[in-house]
């Protein structure tokens, strides 16, 4: 398993799903997963899906600038750090953001998001 290839594939899938079918992200999380979105913590797959669905915009497009990853611990997890911009529908200027994912392997051979931290980057 090439961690960089896994991270790239995960990032492409995550943001494509976020931009087209946000509710579809729920299956990437589990009950022990935690999201910190702009400082607000949410735990559990259903609560995270509800939080993402409640964001005050319906349409957006993520443009990814960088993806960095590192293996994490003996269980086969990985930390993925993403930076990029977020274009909201009807807005002229994109917003810069950073997001960190801690991915953990599943018994089925895929990964789920254990930790997810999102921040807008204000200049």
TrEMBL record:
Main localization category: cytoplasm
Localization per record: Cytoplasm; Nucleus
Gene Ontology annotations for the cellular component aspect, listed alphabetically: cytoplasm; nuclear envelope
Keywords (A to Z) from UniProt: Cytoplasm, Nucleus, Protein transport, Transport
Domain of life: Eukaryota
Domain named NTF2: residues: 6-120
Pfam family for this entry, one: NTF2
GO biological process: mRNA transport; protein import into nucleus
Database matches in PANTHER family: NUCLEAR TRANSPORT FACTOR 2
Function: Has a role in nuclear-cytoplasmic transport of proteins and mRNAs.
Protein name: Nuclear transport factor 2B isoform X2
Organism field: Elaeis guineensis var. tenera
Gene name for this UniProt entry: LOC105048995
């Amino acid at each position: 398993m090439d961690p960089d290839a896994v991270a790239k594939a995960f990032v492409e899938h995550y943001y494509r799903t976020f931009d087209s079918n946000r509710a579809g992200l729920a299956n990437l999380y589990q009950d022990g997963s935690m999201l910190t979105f702009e400082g607000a913590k949410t735990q559990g797959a259903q609560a995270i899906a509800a939080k993402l669905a409640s964001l005050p915009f319906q349409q957006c497009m993520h443009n990814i600038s960088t993806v960095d990853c590192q293996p994490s611990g003996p269980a086969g997890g990985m930390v993925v750090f993403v930076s990029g911009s977020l274009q909201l529908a009807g807005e002229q200027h994109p917003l810069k953001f950073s997001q960190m994912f801690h991915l953990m392997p599943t018994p089925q051979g895929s990964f789920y998001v254990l930790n997810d931290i999102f921040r807008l980057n204000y200049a």
